[in-house]
Each structure stands twice: as C-alpha cells, then as structure tokens.
Amino acid sequence: xxxxxxxxxxxxxxxxxxxxxxxxxxxxxxxxxxxxxxxxxxxxxxxxxxxxxxxxxxxxxxxxxxxxxxxxxxxxxxxxxxxxxxxxxxxxxxxxxxxxxxxxxxxxxxxxxxxxxxxxxxxxxxxxxxxxxxxxxxxxxxxxxxxxxxxxxxxxxxxxxxxxxxxxxxxxxxxxxxxxxxxxxxxxxxxxxxxxxxxxxxxxxxxxxxxxxxxxxxxxxxxxxxxxxxxxxxxxxxxxxxxxxxxxxxxxxxxxxxxxxxxxxxxxxxxxxxxxxxxxxxxxxxxxxxxxxxxxxxxxxxxxxxxxxxxxxxxxxxxxxxxxxxxxxxxxxxxxxxxxxxxxxxxxxxxxxxxxxxxxxxxxxxxxxxxxxxxxxxxxxxxxxxxxxxxxxxxxxxxxxxxxxxxxxxxxxxxxxxxxxxxxxxxxxxxxxxxxxxxxxxxxxxxxxxxxxxxxxxxxxxxxxxxxxxxxxxxxxxxxxxxxxxxxxxxxxxxxxxxxxxxxxxxxxxxxxxxxxxxxxxxxxxxxxxxxxxxxxxxxxxxxxxxxxxxxxxxxxxxxxxxxxxxxxxxxxxxxxxxxxxxxxxxxxxxxxxxxxxxxxxxxxxxxxxxxxxxxxxxxxxxxxxxxxxxxxxxxxxxxxxxxxxxxxxxxxxxxxxxxxxxxxxxxxxxxxxxxxxxxxxxxxxxxxxxxxxxxxxxxxxxxxxxxxxxxx
Length: 713
Hints:
By secondary structure, this protein is mostly beta strands. About 5% of the residues lie in helices and about 60% in strands. It has a 22-stranded antiparallel barrel. A five-stranded mixed sheet has the order 3-9-10-7-8. Strands 15-14-19-18 form a four-stranded mixed sheet, with no helix packed on it.
C-alpha cells in the first residue's frame, strides 16, 4: 500500500513539473568527481555504493549540518544523541551506535579531508565551507579501515582559490535564530594561496520549561578556519588547514504538548550540585571546544602521486544534562568533563602501473581520552520534592587510550572485458583502560576484567566491474570490515566495567550505474546483503547491570536507488530509495519474560526488530531555475523524506508503526548581481517521530524557518 501510494505521488510530481516529459531539451547532469576509493574518479565509474553531494546539491537538499544527511541517504536513519546536540548517531544498513563515551566506537566513521574523526561526541558539523560530501554505504575496511562496518561519511573541504573572492551571508529564523557566515580567498602570491572562513549561529532554544519559565536546547555555534595551499613546485603541493570551534547545543528531551516541546523539570542539576560536590561542567547544557589541524603534502612520484597526511584533533566536552523518565523530568543526571586528543599519520601512494592502477599505504593513529564524570539520581522527584533527595550513583575519572596501525593495498587490473579489484588491509589495535575515584583500575583487575585489549584483523575486498554498454556499468563485490571492541565504561563497579570484543562483517553487493537520454537521466542502483557476527548489543551482567556484550549477529539485505532526471533546462528531479530487511540472528539463550535485560528481544522474549532500521526510506524532490522578469530568477526546491515502519530503541521500544514524512522546502531569489536571498523551512509540517528511546521517546528538531541574504564578491 505504501509503495503504491508513493508511485502515484512520484508520477503526479513528474506530470506537474514537466507537463509533458517527452519535451526534453539538451540539458545534462553535471559529472560528480569523488575520492571514495582514495583516488579521483567519477561517481558513475566507482564500484562502491556511494551517495555524493556537491555544494549546489547540499543547498537544494538543505544539508546544513551533517545530521541532515539522514533526510537524503538511502537506508540511513538517526538523530542527535540523547542529551547531546553536538553528537549524531548514524544507523546505516542497520549498524550504528548511540553511546558517545570514549570506550565505544561508532560503526559509521566520519572523515574530514581523509582524517578520521574518532569521537562521536562532536560529529554534527556545520557545513559552511565544504566542497562535497561522500557517504559510502557498507563496510570500507580496506581503504578506510577500522570502525566502518556500516559505512563512512567523508567531508572534503574547499581549498583556497587562485583568484581573490568570497562571500558574506547573514540571516534570521525561528526561535530567535541569527546566522553570520563568511569566507574569503586571498592569493598571497602565485605559489601561496590562502582562505579564511568563519561562522556564528545562535538561537534561543525551542524547549519550553513551564516550571522555571526558561527555554532549553538553545544553540550557540562559532567557528573559524584558515587554510593555505603552497605550490612548492610543479610536482609538489602542500595543503594545510587549522580550524577552531566553540559549540553549545543540547538535546534535552521535551514532551509534546500541542505544538510545543515542554519540560517540567523543576530543579536543573546545576542548582542541585553547586555548593555540594561542585561542577565538572560549565553548568546546565552541553559545550564542546575543538581544534583541528590537517596537513596533506602531495608530490608526484613515478606514475602516481604520494600523499603524506597528518591529522591532529583536540576536543574538550563539558555537559550537565538531565534524562527524564516516564514519571518525572527530574530523574537522572550526568555531569561530564572530557578531554580527547587524537593524532594520525598516513603515507599513501596512488597511481598507474602497466595494465593496472594501485593504491597502497601505511597508517598510524594514537588517541588519548580523559573523562571525569558523575551520575546522579533524584529520588525526591518521586516524592514531589525534586532536588531534595539527590543521590550520587558514581563519580570516577576514566582514562582510555587507543593505538592503531595498519598497512593496506588495492589493485585494479584489466581482466577480460572488465576491471578486477583486489585489496586488503591488516590492522593492529591496542586499547588500554584505567580508572581513579569511585572505581579503581585494581577493581577491574580483581574482577578479571582485562585492562588491555589487543586486536588484529585482515579486511579484504574483491570486486569486478564491466561496462555493459556505453551507458551502463555493473559491478559485484565482497567486502569485509570490523569494528573494535571496548569496555562498559559507564559502569558503577569494577566487575560491571566488562570488556566486549570486536564485530566483524561480510557485505556483498551488485550495482548498476547508468546514464541515459544524453545523460539527462542518471541511475545508481545497488542490491546488498550483509552478515555481521559478534554484534555489540546490550545484555544483563551477573550483578544486574544492563551493559554491552557480544551477543548474536545481524543479517540484512535490501536495495538502494538514486535517480536524477532533467526533464528540461530549468528543472531537476531526484529520487532516493532504500529498502531493507534486517533481523537479529543467533541470539543468546536465557531470555525470560518479561524481558528487561536483552536488547535484541522484546518484552515477550521474541526477537525484536533491529533498532533504527526502517524497512523503507524514500526521498523525492525537485529544484528549478525560472526567469521572472527584471533580471530576476527564482529557484524553488523541495524534498520529502518518507520513513517506513521502524523501532527506535532496544527491546522494541519506541515503535514508529506507521512511519513518518519530513518535508523541507525553500526558494532562492537572485538577479544578475552578487546578491541571493534564500527563504527556507525544515520539517515544514512539524512532524514528529521517535529517533531514540531512553526511558522516554526523543524527537527530531521541530519546524524551523530561516531567511538568509548572501553577497558574493
């Protein structure tokens, strides 16, 4: 029934926008160049399931922050972490992670200019200086390495231009939102190019606290980026960039009361803690300060190019947040002060040999994390006196480090009428953990919990692609990936801080890439099947705590499609579809109804639906450019994300039975001069669905309107 309805909607949209789809002009779809295989290639010629978006597409699809990708990528679902507006939990083909503490690694890796972002705590990036985004669906264990069993999100930043220019943009919007952004390219000489960019986004918050008469979930984002390109010689280029950001953004749960998100918390945690134990954070809210440095030295070497890539990321996160339950908004609180540092070094070579192209390299990463955090439970909330009976559950300092090294290679060789790809990566990981405070390292040792984890894994890839004709390419592939293990570091005792091992996955794909009608119709279709073992999921420990262990597996299969169509010179239509059929398999024994312990079972001990894995996701939209007279042009655009039935939490909690539709729309008004006015709405119908379920349901952002004026020079 849903698919029939969608088919009618798509057909009606085609007729509405084109009048007669036979009258097609000479427009064609612009070729998108990507680096999904760590080398330059056309998206239509790459044997990987990849969704790529350039600057124009990001504007049309309203991808302003990385969280907006959940509205466009097939089989991608997610939202902000509970409490943390700076953190995104991505679930791609059923694989994701909703835990942000540093001993858990996400299976959907994020990369900025080929440098891995280790922490999920601050992966909701503001996209104001990005050249393109590539979302690689499925494991990327060969070229990207560990923790990409679900896929990888790669951001490619803009490089300094050879000519002076830039833009300034200012805007206003819902909830008192103000925006100011700007970027300028300044060539210092023929061999030294520079770019300077900055942004500031603020609002007053959308969550109404009816008891304290305040608004929560306000936002304050500020950042600055400086980039330089040094043309050392005809064969050597050095790209270097430094960016700093200061972000305040919470995602406190609010109940739905009419059109409003409402909180009835009467005692914010900082009121309770000041004067007693003191604060680790800056007070109520979530604050992240980050400094990131990337250096990429590129030089011609033989028949290819060598890159020496150095990345350095420093992040400090302080938050104090409450987590309501069904009985009270004053229930559970976390006070957190985390310091996270990462350094990576990679040497890569990519080029052509006789009858083959090769990419190989070595990689090293070192990460150090220190997290000082305490948990509180407010028993007074249940007695009608919130904040009067706050009990500290735990207060500890967590130290955990990761050292990872790998060597990888991939070869593309002509075999028969096609190209055979063979690759592999060997990774060695070493992780350590230590505690002080309420939990000690000795308590883990006494309980038999290892304080050092060593893992090595080989992740191969094999693929074969062939041009069916001048318009179409098909490929088949088999790829392995793995996600590293860790510890249950939110534990309140030594035995509960148990370790869990890595996940591993095999994924198989059949893909078709085509361009038809003089490249006015472009299709990307992928069929996939994945088998994951040693699933990291929640189970009961002997002392009654519900923590992560390896239990069972996850099996998924489906189809993904992305179609772009230009019916005429002025109109662009796009369609994305993800269909999947995921299930938990090989689940552990011991579930007893009513189940409160095992995440992969429902309350009756039946296998639950995998969380955040909709059976279908569709995106349909259009954009256009139309002359309206007087030298003015109006460019409308709209898209709808249709989400099928899904479950947002463990134990089948947070069931979105009917699915939901999120509509985004807007238009740009411009003339022959440098000015562009853009007016938009996101979640225009103010639709809600459950993105997570921790005690109570959490929802996506409410309806927002923005108006921005941009001046290019």
